Amino acid sequence: MVGENRLLNLSLLLALFFSLITVTLLNLQVFRTDRYRTLSEENCFKKEIVVPVRGSIISSDNAVIATSKRYFSLYGEVSKINMDAGAIGKLSELIAIQPDSINALIKMSRIYDERDVLLKSNLDIATVTFLEENGGMYQGLSIRSHPRRFYPYEYVYSHVLGYVGNITQTEYEKYKQLGYSITDFIGKTGVERSYEKYLKGQNGIKYFETDVYGRVIREIEKKNAVEKINGNDVYVTLNHRMQMYIDTLMTENESGCILLLDAKDGSVISMYSKPSFDPNIFVYGIRRDMWDYLKRNPLSPFLNRCTDGVYPPGSTFKILTTLSGLNEGFIDSQTYFQECNGSIMISNRIFNCWSTHYELDLLEAFKQSCDVYYYQLGMKIGLDKLARYAYLSGFGDAVGIDIYEESNGLVPDTKYLNKKYGRNGWGIGQTANLSIGQGDLLVTPIQMASFLLAILNGGEKIIPHIVDSIIDKQNEVRFRHKKKINGKLVFSNEDMAFIRLCMTEAVNGDKGTGAGAKSSLCSISGKTGTAENSAGIPHAWFVSYFPSDNPEVVCVIVLENSGHGGEMAAPFAKRIAEKWMNMK
Amino acid sequence: MNLLKKTDKPIFISLVLILIFGLLMVFSATYKQDISFFFKQIVWVAISIFIFFLIQFVPMKVFYISSYLLYFLSMLLLVFLKLLNASYVERWIDIGFAYIQPSEFAKLTLILALARYLSNRYRDVNKTNVLFISTLIALLPFTLVFIQPDLGTSLIFLIILIIILYLADVKVTYIIVLMTPLLSVVFSFIPFVWIIYLFVLGYALYLGRMNILNIIKIVFMNIFVGGLSPVLWGLLKEYQKVRILSYLKPHKDIHGFGWNLLQSKIAIGSGGFWGNGFLKGTQKGLDFVPQQHTDFIFSVIGEEFGFFGFVILSVLIFVIVYRTVSVFPLIKSRYSKLLAGAILTVTVLQMLLNISMTIGILPIVGIPLNFISYGGSSLFTSVVMFALLNKIILDRGNYW
């Protein structure tokens, strides 16, 4: 009886069981120990991201146009809160929260055993001051501040500077190597986006010892802790006074844009687009309904019209048509075409002029913006050649300004039109339309401004820029803009001098369409444009530079659906030029 | 030094080393929260060692004679505990200066009672009546503890039954047949499968040339147990149901019961081969691993002494197993033999079960790690069992 073998068998079974445990333990403690060690560290240390102060953005006339402001929040330390009903009542009045809600907040935090409770975020300064002076009444309450983006001029710079918002999952994946955290804010558009790496600074990392519930016990020294580095200040070329002036100019207009470039180096003096939005609304997380409203608004408030808005250029394109014709040798200043009787028949189709000009030479045709003259000139040049000149002059492609929101525009050539309308689906009329800046042609205001800039600079296609320099907190220059040139215009200096004369005449000469811009303070050169579009009332264009003899500023104005360029847009140029002269 | 002559050196030295190891672990797991755990455990170790020596002076025959009485007393305690019911935890009885856990004592008394019952009937162990009564002897404490509810300990009673029947030379097929009601427990939750199972069982027994009456008995037992189990499942506390179910998806509910296991694995895994060093564990303090001083004490060993700590513990246990197995054939008394075999197997098995629960091989059902976990009753019972083992090995040549 009581077989010895049986105890041996049982021992063998135990040995088997023992082996299974040994293998599992080896796996846990030897082969996968690193993984568990990491988990173990995460269990008892809390990593906290210390957000750096984002760099400010400063205009050329030293106005701080984007900065970081301290936002104040009221916290209570749950275990120390000790307020009677009276104190709670006072507090509730102060922070505009029902006493019941305050009690409920505190109670919930007690139930969940939290250390702190957030009673109110975004306190105003008066409340902060009051609470700090009367701290004794409210035991256990504390005010904490944290830097958040603040745009003092709200909607005025929202397109050119852009805005910051909560980092998205995709952005986080891209930026996490740079130490970004999922709670970070990141530049979404404009300068905020394109100079993100300078503005952001470096997130700091602090480690805290925590208990099992993740509550902080104390800060600890750890070798992978990182000091935060505040962001660098970005100095932009924008002129604050001019931008504000343009804002007042645009009060009556619902939508449009005004772009001012320095005529010497292409730095952006003003970039104003309307309608706009207040970028501050993204700082505390935008409300869903507000976002939907902004997104669905048919006037697209997020669109930076100066760089991203595409328009038919209308008669302003005659600058290019003229230069092309001169360059090809089809015309000179003495060339007369068939006279303007208000319309002209081209291959069995009647093309209208906006007025009846009779017989004109080139200068007069430009000055009075005679369509009939330009139809005939365009037919001589031909569609593809004209399109080619447009490409060479920077149309149909982004100019490469230092923000990302930029459109290519569209220059239709035979290839494009064949694709769009079919090989026989379009006719000679496309050429006529292109020569006066209508049809499928689309340009951005910045392309037009850059084109003008090149004409003023001997054909050098200077790339416009917004940021001049970036200076860190130790006053060291981290970035300074260097003039960038993207090739040269193909036109001769004589032709470009002639077109400048044309533009000066268009404003200052008899019967010039740009007469509305004529100023006694400053001589302005410009070209009007009245861009027909599907929306009905045409867009009013005025492209100009001033002073005429020694240009300082290139000014491009587009007023959407406002009517004639000469009537509507040109007077704006005059007022801007006068403001400019006054400011000097 | 007279006392030491009363000990079998390999077993006693190993036991003492394990106890010291256990004390260190309890200290490490609790000293930050409450040093009194450690002092209480020291008192229990002292009491247990005292009893250890006391037992060496009591003739084996006394245990044999009082086997049933002790069994009966411990059953009374369990019933008393159930009736008491006033205490907020139903596993412990407050005896003034300490809490005692009657189910721990019942492990020992069940072994004593079964050893006595089977050693008396060694020629008849394969008879149905003997098997039936043995089963009933085990089912009584099983049921009483199960309804406490304490799933882990109640399962130990079934394990004791199986081990002791096997050691008593019961045919393996009979043991398997005895276990068929366990399958009924599982199948009874799917009535259709259960009915098919009952028919297959009956037919298989018929093919095995069992007599009809016995087949009816066994099938009836299956129906009885199977019919009862959904009722008993209903009696289970919600947390026990969750525990059993949480084994299936431990990572899903990170702060539920799977949390215990995950935290325990983190602690053990982070220990690596050599461990973080004594008192250098970061995951403890009853916080990260709940019940770390009791059922999860192995996570402290794993974190602070690493795989090496497990090896040390294993070597100590191995010494005891090796000693017992090698002396086993020399034991003359059948009663002592059953006792020694059962004590050794059950103790080691329980340790292995506990460890495998802390590393996720088995579902967590609440079994302490003998000798090491905090808790007087468990420690006391385990030491007393080894005191008996020690005595049997010393007296191996004697009939009593």
Would you kindly provide a written description of the structure presented here, covering whatever features stand out?
- The complex is a heterodimer of chains A (584) and B (400).
- Among the domains of chain A are: 42 residues; 189 residues, Penicillin-binding protein 2a (Domain 2) (Alpha-Beta Complex), CATH 3.90.1310.
- Helices cover 36% and strands 22% of the residues of chain A.
- In chain A, the strands form 6 sheets. In chain A, strands 2, 3, 4, 5, 10, 16 and 17 form a 7-stranded mixed β-sheet that branches. In chain A, strands 12-11-21-20-19 form a 5-stranded antiparallel β-sheet, with helices on both faces.
- In chain A, a hairpin with a 5-residue loop joins strand 2 and strand 3.
- Chain B has one domain.
- In chain B, strand 1 and strand 2 form a beta hairpin.
- Chain B is globular, with a radius of gyration of 22 Å.
- The two termini of chain B are 25 Å apart.
- The interface between A and B is large, with 34 and 44 residues.
| CATH-assigned homologous superfamily of the domain at 48-236 in chain A | Penicillin-binding protein 2a (Domain 2)
The residue fraction in helices of chain B comes out at: over 70%
- Give the strand line-up of the largest sheet of chain B: 1-2
How confident overall, as mean pLDDT of chain A?
Answer: 89
Individual helix count of chain B: 15
Structural class based on helices, strands and sheet pairing of chain B: mainly alpha
Helix content of chain A: 25-40%
- Multimeric organization: heterodimer
Shape of chain B: globular
**Describe the biggest sheet of chain B?**
2 strands, antiparallel
Transmembrane segments (chain A): 7-28
Protein name (chain A): Beta-lactamase
Catalytic activity (chain A): a beta-lactam + H2O = a substituted beta-amino acid
Domain Penicillin-binding protein transpeptidase (chain A): 256-577
